[in-house]
Amino acid sequence: SPLRLSSPSISTVLSLGRRAPTVPNDTPGYSKLQHIPLDFDKLLDDKDVTEQAKLRDTNADLVVVALGTTRAQAGGMDKFVRIDREFVLEASRWAKVEGKEQTLVYCSSGGASSTSLFPYFKSKGLTEEGLSTLNYQQTIIFRPGMLIIPGGREEGRLVENVSGKIMTFLSRFSPTPICIETPTLGRGMVFAALAGRAGLELQKLGKEELLGGRKVWVMGNPEAIRAGEKQEESAR
Question: Of 39, 96, 140, 162, which has the fewest Cβ atoms less than 10 A away?
């Protein structure tokens, strides 16, 4: 499992969202995994104290955010922004515990920039900048390339599946990888979350950037792949 539940450095993994992760119950360390249903709409619109408490009470050392969608899935740009940016910022805000040393890891996108002319990349960039203002001790941002899901998406989106195969083919001729498999990305985010507290491995893999005047670690697609490989090696 990309969660590396069997690692002695992990005591508990809390999953917060609408659906529980599909992890087989015979996975080593499975008992460490707990799912907490979270209603993002209530968290955002109603400022529901119950939903806020679910996040605040996790008292997490590491906060990993992989929430996202597409404009087509969301049903329009406004709904996309609501899910992809507002949900992410509100949840991360309530997961922050004042006075506690915490690391935040966020899955963004290659090309993310608040000044982009493309709405998708602009929204991702604004999300990154918003997260940088939350004053986590350490903020690590992944900007992966084209996501390749082994076996294809459950939705069976033909165009996206075909484009994924084309991008995989073209990546053979690129000096740097332009695609990444989702399991590799997941492992890379876990590796960064664990290694980031020491900072040593991140200096070898990622680079520091200033977002809104605040330092964050940024992991591009090649760095995400290397981090995923390192996590896989350490789990053997």
Answer: 162
